[in-house]
Design brief:
It is a single chain. The protein has about 325 residues and is of the alpha/beta class. It has 8 helices and 10 strands. The chain has an 8-stranded mixed beta sheet with strand order 1-6-5-4-7-8-9-10, sandwiched between helices. The two termini are about 35 Å apart. About 45% of the residues are buried. It binds NADP nicotinamide-adenine-dinucleotide phosphate. NADP nicotinamide-adenine-dinucleotide phosphate binds near residues 71, 131, 217, 260 and 264. NADP nicotinamide-adenine-dinucleotide phosphate binds next to helix 1, strand 5 and helix 6.
Length: about 325
């Protein structure tokens, strides 16, 4: 299910206009009744970076000739990241896009192919797979090995696929071990095992830079009522990637929190959340236009990758870029 893109190139996405709101939304950390799991006191909200700063950046370097593996690339944030990486890698690179929906993956590949962003010789490989299954991890590893060649100078793994879990009940509602295990298997174990497989497949060598991104969340740091599965999974992932950064000093590891994004996951958040104040918070954010576009958040991630100045293992929030 591969494809090669043969159109011309455009400027890096990191130089494109960002539609990021100027400030970190007050919600969902606070409601009229007070803070909701956040530790930041009232009236002390930190000023955030000017979102238009990207416009004045000098033209960024590219990401080199790279193998990029992106899970959850069929829609939402993963799709935006795939489109940006396509613009930023050099000819001779390869993208391995993973998701369960083959139709959506093919639509993303068509968009890459049609877009002026494509570059001669960029391979786009699709892996239709449920990352929660062992055989899927094998498929992803196999496809990655197939498209890798010794002229590639970088490997970028984007652990993006995730699920929100059942947010319609509180911790006391989770009596079923299998349900909790299944959630953690998809959202924690699979990211760990896929990353481990790919790092084993492509061990350190001179001239090869290896980078692993964990798509994280504010929920890795702060408790949201009725989001116990999601918060636990994101917190566990952050710590796992911190340990990895300690163990592999040559590796670049980043937990990137993309902010509240206008995606399918947000629809679930505002329709299914059990806690009324959290639910209202997300509905208000949507109604007040406080959600970020995937494109704007992805541009921030690209900036981090291009500058490559983050401390390996750190959790970086979109509003701090
Ligand atoms: P989304 O719109 O729900 O997309 C999720 C992506 O993951 C889809 O491409 C989906 O594709 C894929 N996926 C889900 N389960 C999978 C499985 N079992 N195997 C393979 N692929 C699977 O979510 P999103 O909002 O873009 O979220 C992307 C990342 O950002 C996630 O890690 C999320 O936790 C994080 N995040 C999101 C928000 C937000 O507000 N949306 C905020 C903070 C962090 P298929 O269905 O085709 O498999």
């Amino acid at each position: 299910m591969g494809g090669t893109i043969c159109s011309g190139s455009t400027r890096p996405a990191a130089n494109q206009r960002s539609s990021l709101p100027t400030e970190r939304p007050a919600l969902p950390y606070k409601t009229r009744r007070g803070r909701q799991g956040g530790s930041r006191p009232r009236n002390r909200r930190r000023r955030t970076a000017d979102p238009n700063r990207l416009l004045t950046m000098p033209p960024a370097a590219d990401l080199g000739r790279a193998l990029c593996v992106i899970t959850g690339a069929s829609r939402g944030f993963g799709r935006a990241v795939a489109l940006d990486l396509c613009r930023l890698v050099r000819p001779g690179s390869a993208l391995v896009l993973v998701a369960r929906s083959g139709a959506d993956l093919r639509a993303v590949r068509a968009q890459l192919t049609e877009s002026e962003a494509g570059r001669t010789g960029l391979k786009v490989e699709l892996v239709e797979a449920d990352v929660g299954k062992e055989e899927s991890l094998e498929k992803i590893e196999r496809k990655s090995r197939e498209v890798f060649n010794d002229e590639m100078e970088k490997i970028i793994v984007i652990n993006n696929a995730a699920s929100l879990g059942d947010v319609s009940k509180f911790v006391t509602g989770f009596t079923d071990l299998a349900e909790v295990d299944a959630y953690l298997s998809l959202n924690v174990s699979s990211a760990m095992c896929l990353t481990a497989r790919l790092l084993q497949a492509f061990p350190p060598r001179a001239g090869l830079r290896r980078c692993v991104i964990n798509v994280s969340s504010l929920c890795a740091l702060k408790p949201f009522r009725s989001w116990s599965l999601y918060c636990s999974g994101k917190a566990a992932r952050d710590m796992m990637f911190k340990v990895l950064a300690e163990e592999e000093p040559e590796l670049r590891v980043l937990s990137y929190s993309p902010g509240p994004l206008d995606t399918g996951m947000q629809v679930e958040a505002r329709t299914k959340t059990a806690d009324p104040s959290i639910k209202k918070t997300f509905s208000n954010m949507f109604a007040q236009g406080q959600l970020l576009t995937c494109e704007a958040s992805s541009a921030k991630l690209m900036k981090l990758l291009l500058e490559d100045k983050f401390t390996s293992g750190d959790h970086v929030d979109v509003f701090d870029v």
